[in-house]
Amino acid sequence: MSSFKALQTSENADGRFETRVVERDIGELPSGELLIRVSYSSLNYKDALSASGNRGVTRNFPHTPGIDAAGTVAESSVSQFAEGDEVIVTGYDLGMNTAGGFGQYIRVPAAWAIKRPAGLSLREAMALGTAGLTAALCIDKLEHAGLERTDAPVLVTGATGGVGSVAVALLSRLGYQVAAVTGKADQADFLRQLGATQVIERGALQVGTEKPLLKEQWAGAVDTVGGDILFNVVKSLRRGASVACCGLTAGTNFQANVMPFILRGVNLLGVDSVEIPLVVKASMWDRLSLQWKLSNLNELVQEISLQELPAAIERILAGQQTGRMLVRLD
């Protein structure tokens, strides 16, 4: 088989971008040691930006987005992988400027791939995807910074989104009390099903931006939105607590002051899941397949086909996605 189906975003003569399913040839894929037949991918906000022509994510078009892929090695030129191996690829340049997981085949460097952990199926791996990996990295970083199970809840902002929903479920799985923040009041039951013990309306975290400090409340936090909400979280952390920052949907800037850091000794921790060493990714995937494995993963996921992706991209750009969107390519 030399042809395959892929979602492709193209720039029209008038500068508008169009996304549709096309037939591609395997020979058009970039060079790389591994040719992988993709079984599943997942829809992330970065994918939607790429599909809408955002040149901060993707420079050249036409392009196939998809920063996540899980599938089977079809060809390998390296000894570490053999035909038939099931693998996971997330991050690096996949789906940004390298044809991504929204195609039935990808070709990538072997240094981007890990073998599927025995405790996860390919479907489960992409139900988690980059969002699940990021959530796990946030929690791991918080625990290394001293997060402990106390009577104070751990706050999760953007809790109905991909990273946020997995973070709520993981924290609950690990025995933490979880306060979930959302602008979608109708999703409170969904968040409680994932394990949230408290649901907070987003507007409550936007009050007090002008104040240097707020009431101490949170044992720690996972922030997926950024902006002034992030700094309000910093100002309301308990003494010595930390917030792991991994998103920017509410903005890249905030009005800051040094008082929370000096008077309460709190920490702002940055989390990257794209360019980290492969060994770190592998260790997180192992953890997600074993001691951190979620029994309620299906509650997070809606499965769609390649043909349904364009409409799903519009929904995520409009802020209407809840949980994880799993893309079936077989």
From TrEMBL:
Class of enzymatic activity (EC top level):
oxidoreductase
Q: What range(s) does the Enoyl reductase (ER) domain occupy?
A: 15-327
Q: Does the keyword Oxidoreductase apply?
A: yes
Q: Which Gene3D superfamilies match?
A: Medium-chain alcohol dehydrogenases, catalytic domain, NAD(P)-binding Rossmann-like Domain
Alphabetic keyword roster:
Oxidoreductase
SMART domains, A to Z? PKS_ER (SM00829)
Signal sequence segment: none
Any Pfam family hit:
ADH_zinc_N
Q: Which SUPFAM superfamilies match?
A: GroES-like, NAD(P)-binding Rossmann-fold domains
| Record GO terms (molecular function) | acryloyl-CoA reductase (NADH) activity; acryloyl-CoA reductase (NADPH) activity
UniProt entry tagged with the keyword Nucleus: no
Q: Which domain of life is it from?
A: Bacteria
State its Enzyme Commission number(s).
Answer: 1.3.1.95
Family annotation (InterPro entries): Acrylyl-CoA_reductase_AcuI, ADH-like_C, ADH-like_N, ER, GroES-like_sf, NAD(P)-bd_dom_sf, Zn-ADH-like_protein
Name used for this protein in its record: Acryloyl-CoA reductase
Native species: Stutzerimonas stutzeri (Pseudomonas stutzeri)
